[in-house]
Design goal:
Elements lengths: L10 H21 L2 H9 L1 H14 L1 H4 L7 H8 L3 H12 L5 E2 L5 E2 L2 H4 L10 H7 L2 H7 L2 H7 L4 H5 L3 H7 L1 H17 L1 H7 L7 E5 L5 H9 L4 E6 L1 H13 L6 E5 L12 E5 L7 H14 L5 E7 L9 H12 L7 H10 L2 E8 L4 E8 L1
Parallel strand pairs: 3-4, 3-6, 4-5, 6-7
Antiparallel strand pairs: 1-2, 7-9, 8-9
Helix pairs in contact: 3-6, 3-8, 5-6, 8-13, 12-13
Length: about 375
């Protein structure tokens, strides 16, 4: 775990690059036949499956010690050499892996994201998003659009989270993917917001405590409370102890639908509200509001959907929520109104260089 806060590029520069990239993409699509542009978008799903295959085969790990020839790599990952070459040819065209002049394959910065043991690994995310069950759920997007409801009840007789609890293969795959994705946006959050101004931070539904641990490492005067379900809390407590944070961070067990620990100066909900249907998300806000003392702050960390026509990750994840959980992404105005319904006043929205924003609210 890093104790020094990494340097982030200026947010203005990041936004400018995004505008240029989106502008070039729009111009490219307008230059050619519309059918060709649509065909390229349709093929994007195949690229997802190619990335999943590379993660499943462990290609990035096989190249961790240096470049390998096609024959060496095929033997290392247990693949057909010609088929592996065809897979890598596609990925290389998108910056994932490279082929040197001597014909050997090697890692790129993007390929390193598919390694198991790296600071920010997306291997588990690739395994989840390319998995058969995830593909199957998305194949029923039209049903979710027609009904406005997630597809789990019709396909599996239970909600996504119930399915993940009963099918531990799915549950482990999902949990690992969320940990993987959570690490991706951690540095930008820590660079954009001063969490150290709070004496006690309560991370509600904070998984194994990765974010809270990073905050405490950078804020030596702060204390933390990790609140999680019993089955998650046990492993989280051990991990926090290994990091030397047992004296500054306690782990409490329970459900955020019932109650959350009292007495915190700040309550963090990171990627929680978007997971749940409106009524359930409201119940979470109500239990947090009931636990907050005067002057405490609520920190909602979520993607915020911009009110423009440009591409944005939140617009994609919003459909992921529709299909799988019944949750949703929201605009700033939608969050303001939603928070107000449960006794909060949105005071500011702190952007980061990642798609995540920090919505700071206070009891109304």
């Amino acid at each position: 775990m890093a104790s020094d806060q990494p340097r982030m590029p200026p947010q203005g520069l990041v936004r400018a690059v995004e505008l240029v990239r989106n502008g070039l993409a729009v111009a490219y699509r307008k230059l050619g036949p519309g059918q060709l542009a649509v065909m390229e978008l349709l093929a994007a799903g195949w690229l997802t499956q190619a990335i999943h295959a590379a993660a499943e085969l462990g290609i990035a790990d096989a190249l961790a010690d240096g470049p390998r020839s096609g024959a060496e790599l095929a033997q290392a990952v247990g693949a057909d050499e010609d088929a592996l070459h065809r897979l890598l040819r596609l990925l290389i065209g998108h910056g994932i892996f490279k082929r040197r002049r001597d014909g050997r394959y090697a890692l790129t910065p993007m390929a390193k994201a598919l390694q198991r043991d790296t600071d920010v690994s997306l291997r588990d995310a690739a395994l989840f998003f390319g998995s058969p069950i995830h593909r199957d759920n998305w194949s029923h997007l039209v049903d979710a659009v027609r009904t406005g409801k997630p597809v789990g009840e019709a396909l599996h007789g239970m909600s996504f989270f119930e399915h993940a609890r009963t099918d531990r293969t799915l549950g482990t795959l999902f949990d690992n993917a969320m940990t993987s994705i959570g690490s991706l946006g951690l540095a930008p959050l820590l660079a954009a917001y001063d969490f150290g101004r709070f004496e006690t931070l309560v991370d509600v539904g904070g998984g194994e405590g990765t974010m809270l641990a990073e905050i405490l490492c950078r804020a030596p005067r702060s204390k933390g409370v990790l609140f999680e379900l019993p089955e998650v809390a046990e492993s989280a407590a051990g991990r926090l102890a290994e990091l030397g944070l047992a004296e500054r961070c306690t782990v409490e067990r329970g459900s955020f639908f019932d109650e959350v620990p009292q007495g915190g100066d700040a309550y963090i909900l990171k990627h929680i509200l978007h997971d749940w249907p409106e009524d359930d998300a409201g119940r979470i806000l109500a239990t947090v509001r009931a636990a907050m003392k005067p002057g405490a702050r609520l920190l909602v960390i979520e993607l915020v959907v911009p009110e423009n026509a440009r591409p944005h990750p939140g617009k994609i994840i919003d459909l992921e929520m529709l299909v799988n959980t019944g949750g949703r992404e929201r605009t700033t105005d939608e969050y303001r109104k939603f928070l107000a319904r449960f006794g909060f006043r949105l005071t500011r929205v702190v952007p980061t260089v990642s798609p995540d924003n920090i919505l700071e609210a206070e009891p109304a």
